[in-house]
Specification:
Elements: E1 5-9, H1 16-30, E2 38-42, H2 48-54, E3 61-64, H3 81-87, E4 91-94, H4 97-103, H5 107-119, E5 123-128, H6 132-136, H7 140-151, E6 163-167, H8 181-198, H9 201-206, E7 209-211, H10 220-224, E8 231-234, H11 241-249
Helix pairs in contact: 1-2, 1-11, 7-8
Length: 252
């Protein structure tokens, strides 16, 4: 059985006080529900301590939105994996399209960050996905395969137990557009097949693959019903406790 994971990527939103309020709202929405998915919230760095405290004695996990590949050093503005562990984070998002688009992230630096995070004992949510022009050119499979293969260089089959892959079509992030359930499932299956070629069928079959392109309360149930979609990496909807709870509860 693959593990279902619903993760909220808060992006650059929320102060520490707002973090506590939102998490309290999520806890209230999920109270007494029999959850079928692991729940992760990923706030900005300055909110991590507040999030960890607010999630204490709950099953909600806390993750960060990025991590540097070095243990320490002259990297102004960056955060190391050991720092994230020290504050209580368990997960980290790596390779999000916004990091690639706005901050010069490459497939190689994604790989460096993945290996550093795993070495420090963090669980990784690895993001891959194609641009609109790449989908229109018919090269989605080639793009996500390349991103996946490079990101996982040097990662062992045993370490893959600490990796989730999130398929996030860049054209569907923050645009209101969403891949159809069939499109999402097709690319998640492509990713699973790539992992099978890199490792083995068992590793691929056990891998959690999320969909991360504008999943919301209205479309979550249909997307999550697909055989290769094992959860969601949620953007805007994760900032609304009621909507986020609907998505979590959509996992059956």
């Amino acid at each position: 059985m693959r593990k279902y994971v619903i993760a909220g990527n808060w992006k650059m939103n929320m102060t520490p006080d707002q973090t506590k309020t939102l998490i309290d709202g999520i806890k209230a929405e999920l109270f007494a529900s029999e959850l079928k998915a692991e729940v992760v919230i990923c706030p900005p760095f300055i909110d991590l301590a507040a999030a960890v405290e607010a999630c204490k004695d709950t099953k909600i996990k806390v993750g960060a939105q990025n991590v540097h590949w070095a243990e320490k050093g002259a990297f102004t503005g960056e955060i190391s994996a050991d720092m994230l562990k020290a504050v209580g984070a368990e997960y980290v998002i790596i390779g999000h399209s916004e990091r690639r688009q706005y901050f010069g992230e490459t497939d190689i630096t994604v790989n460096q960050r993945v290996k550093a995070a795993i070495a420090a004992g963090l669980k990784v949510i690895l993001c891959v996905g194609e641009l609109l022009e790449e989908r229109e050119q018919g090269i989605t499979a080639e793009i996500v395969a390349k991103q996946t293969k490079i990101a996982l260089m040097g990662v062992t089959a045993e370490q893959m137990k600490d990796v989730i892959i999130a398929y996030e079509p860049v054209w569907a992030i923050g645009t209101g557009k969403t891949a159809s359930s069939e499109q999402a499932d097709e690319v998640c299956e492509i990713i699973r097949n790539v992992v099978a070629t890199l490792y083995c069928g068992k590793t691929a079959e056990e891998l959690t693959i999320q969909y991360g392109g504008s999943m919301n309360a209205a479309n979550a149930a249909e997307l999550l019903s697909m055989p290769n979609v094992d959860g969601g990496l949620i953007g805007g909807a994760s900032l609304k406790s009621a909507d986020f709870a609907v998505i979590v509860k959509a996992v059956r």
